[in-house]
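Hey, quick one: can you model this chain's 3D structure?
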Amino acid sequence: MIEIAPEVRERFPTLRLAVVEVSGVSVRSTRRGRPEELEELVEEAVEEVRKSYELATLKDVPLFRTYRDFFWRLGIDPTKDRPSAEALVRRVLSGKPFPAINDLVDAYNVASMRSGIPIATFDADAIIGPRVELRFAREGELFLGIGMEKPVRLSGRELVLADGGGPIAVYPHRDSDRTKVTERTTHVLVVACGAPGVGEEKLVEAAELTVEYIVKFCGGAPGPVKLI
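Sure thing. Here's the predicted structure for all 228 residues.
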């Protein structure tokens, strides 16, 4: 379902993604509180992060530094647009609450924070066309991310995951509102987003952890993890 555009392969030959689909999920809102077992997982992960990292030195953690360096190579300032896994860790270290959206999103956010790998997850039935492509944005292309009030105009430097209707994620930073996971979602596409220098094994482990949590809290039948 996902392909990497030739120009991206040429510029970043070691860039890999780990991709998996999960069908038959049942998603419930957590905005008014999480199920006890999921809340315990969140609390455990938050405590783990607070023991493992310090805010002042977070940018120097090798895995997060790898993604930051990748952003700089794209001409994007990672102090303003942070890779999503680092953003979650930074949020927790800053004393802000772990985001509560729905049980599937909360579950994959825990997997992302624990693994340090940005995870993108989409409602597979909202994807337009037979495939998604990791490509460079087209200058002036519009993108409406989750939580945005209005679309932003992309510069053309960004990497995007795009379907037949345009970008569904600015990689590996923010997912699209159009393909976000909601309580109506029953079929998800999960992407563990790599960067040059991030090993394939780590990506597969992050994808497997994400699927483990999704199935535990939302049910569903996962397919095989595929390296792209």
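One thing worth noting: The CA atoms of residues 208 and 225 lie 7 Å apart.
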